[in-house]
């Protein structure tokens, strides 16, 4: 195939290295779809769509490909595909070999190969039965064939042990691909949908031995691919039947469930079908509060908010209606981001900034980037286009919510010689008694920062900013520690307070010159507070 021009040169080189190292496993090429597993820092699943000599699309579970880029794992699989194609004998060579061989030689060779590769047994049997499909065959006939596969490879238990994993995967994949192809050729669309549904239900019942994760995912991908294949040319009546089946069965498909929902919400886009999906997702959301386990309840809320919101958008409902829904579910990432988008459409920048900051603060670590990336992009836009009044009000808002990024963006946009004047204008908008120490840190105004830290009661400000101040002002910080320690010791009465004093002393020890000073403080306390037995006991633990 002519595919290399689609990849960056360094990606092609890394893909070639992966292929040469034998890191491509479970390679399959069927019906215009290539699938494989590539071993790297993790196992990555690669799926490629091809049409003759052309690469149409590719996907990989690696982070690089998540941004719609062709990755080294795809390149490694394509190198294998090229070699496999190059190794195929041409039809003339095959014909000449068969012409020279006797029937007995062909039979002996075929029997030998079936012993080496058990998957050939199923494929040969299906080849012999390729004319099995006759008018009058119904779903029960195909279910019988599927039952035979399950009986042969799992003894009817639906448990797949490791040695049988590849053979079972091949058998089900061949059955699914060949049956769907025949039924589509015969224009029996409804029966084709029913067969794929039955395969998915059977795959959902399978329990795979350890180490068969790739086989599991390959069967899930095969079901999703087959659904798309039969639903694309289906008429309204068949699609309606298929959607009703998904609505009734999607949530009991086990490992196939996520892919089934993806197919369901990508495929049925006619208005009547969208209304059905909207009613279904609304019902699923309504029963989420009944889930007892908190994490599962949150997971299901996130899922159904995302799908219901998608359906509302596909229905092109009025923005006000979508916004009301989003406001009710701002605790979910999807609803909050959609609400932000609606507010930006209305140029309500203050609400958009507020929700992005709150979302960033509330999100788990793996979701924070979804908010912070959009917030940075919005800040850059507003720093260039917003009026000074709007910029100041947004700065006050963001700073009040504990976010310094907009201040930093504004500073980068401003010429150095103008920044002091512009900074005064920004600070004038802050409420009185606002803590400005974080801004002094951003501006690297360290003398002013030191003055603010020293004037602040307690040691919290020292500990917050000592990393910035220590290179220039270690003696002043050590002196601040001593003053606060002596003041706190005078009023300390409880074991908890004594423990806190010792904790501050150990922090003081870590500062330049702090150990000598801490020892002097301890000696002084041993004399001054010798009657406080609990305090002496705490000191004796560490000093």
Give structural attributes.
single chain; 543 residues; alpha+beta; 4-stranded antiparallel sheet; two-stranded parallel sheet; 26 helices; zinc; metal-binding; SWIM zinc finger domain-containing protein; zinc-finger
Output mean pLDDT: 90
Number of helical elements = 26
* Main sheet specs: 4 strands, antiparallel
How many beta strands in the DSSP annotation? 6
- Outline, from the CA principal axes? elongated
Q: Into which percent range does the helicity of residues fall?
A: 55-70%
Low-confidence stretches: 130-135
Strand order of the largest sheet: 1-2-3-4
Q: In angstroms, what is the radius of gyration?
A: 34 Å
Report the end-to-end length measured between terminal Cα atoms: 74 Å
Beta-strand share of residues: 5-15%
Structural class: alpha+beta
Structure description:
- By secondary structure, the chain is an alpha+beta fold.
- It is built from 26 helices and six strands.
- A four-stranded antiparallel β-sheet has the order 1-2-3-4, sandwiched between helices. The chain has a two-stranded parallel sheet with strand order 5-6.
- Mean pLDDT is 90; it is low at 130-135.
């Amino acid at each position: 195939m002519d595919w290399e021009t689609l990849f960056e040169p360094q990606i092609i080189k890394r893909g070639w290295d992966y292929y040469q190292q034998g890191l491509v496993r479970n390679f399959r090429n069927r019906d215009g779809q290539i699938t494989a597993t590539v071993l790297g820092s993790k196992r990555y699943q690669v799926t490629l769509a091809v049409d003759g000599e052309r690469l149409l699309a590719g996907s990989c579970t690696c982070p690089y490909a998540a941004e719609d880029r062709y990755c080294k794992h795809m390149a490694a699989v394509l190198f294998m595909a090229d070699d496999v194609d190059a190794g195929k004998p041409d039809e003339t060579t095959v014909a000449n070999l068969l012409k020279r061989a006797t029937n007995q030689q062909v039979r002996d060779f075929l029997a030998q190969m079936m012993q080496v590769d058990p998957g050939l047994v199923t494929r040969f049997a299906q080849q012999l039965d390729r004319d099995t499909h006759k008018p009058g065959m119904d779903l029960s006939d195909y279910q019988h064939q599927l039952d035979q596969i399950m009986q042969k490879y799992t003894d009817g238990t639906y448990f797949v042990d490791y040695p049988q994993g590849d053979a079972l995967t091949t058998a089900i994949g061949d059955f699914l691909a060949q049956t769907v192809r025949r039924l589509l050729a015969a224009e029996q669309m409804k029966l084709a949908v029913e067969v794929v549904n039955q395969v998915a239900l059977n795959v959902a019942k399978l329990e795979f031995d350890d180490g068969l994760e790739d086989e599991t995912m390959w069967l899930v991908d095969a079901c999703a691919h087959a659904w798309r294949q039969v639903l694309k040319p289906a008429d309204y009546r068949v699609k309606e039947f298929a959607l009703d089946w998904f609505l009734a069965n999607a949530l009991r498909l086990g490992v196939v469930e996520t892919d089934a929902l993806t197919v369901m919400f990508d495929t049925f886009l006619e208005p009547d079908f969208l209304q059905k999906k909207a009613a279904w997702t609304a019902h699923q959301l309504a029963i989420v509060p009944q889930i007892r386990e908190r994490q599962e309840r949150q997971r299901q809320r996130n899922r159904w908010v995302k799908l219901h919101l998608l359906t509302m958008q596909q229905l092109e409902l009025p923005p006000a209606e979508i916004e009301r829904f989003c406001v009710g579910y701002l605790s979910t990432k999807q609803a909050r981001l959609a609400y932000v988008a609606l507010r930006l459409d209305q140029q309500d920048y203050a609400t958009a900034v507020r929700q992005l900051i709150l979302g960033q603060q509330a999100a788990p670590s793996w979701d924070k980037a979804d908010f912070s990336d959009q917030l940075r992009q919005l800040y850059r836009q507003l720093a260039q286009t917003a009026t000074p009044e709007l910029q100041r009000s947004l700065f006050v808002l963001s700073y009040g919510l504990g976010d310094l990024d907009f201040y930093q963006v504004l500073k980068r946009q401003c010429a150095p010689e103008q920044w002091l004047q512009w900074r005064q204008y920004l600070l004038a908008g802050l409420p009185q008694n606002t803590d400005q120490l974080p801004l002094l840190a951003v501006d690297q105004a360290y003398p002013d920062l030191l003055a603010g830290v020293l004037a602040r009661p307690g040691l919290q400000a020292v500990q917050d900013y000592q990393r910035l101040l220590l290179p220039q002002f270690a003696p002043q910080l050590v002196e601040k520690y001593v003053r606060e320690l002596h003041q706190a010791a005078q009023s300390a009465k409880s074991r908890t307070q004594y423990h806190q004093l010792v904790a501050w002393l150990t922090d003081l020890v870590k500062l330049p010159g702090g150990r000598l000073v801490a020892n002097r403080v301890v000696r002084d306390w041993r004399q001054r507070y010798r009657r406080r037995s609990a305090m002496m006991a705490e000191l004796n633990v560490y000093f």
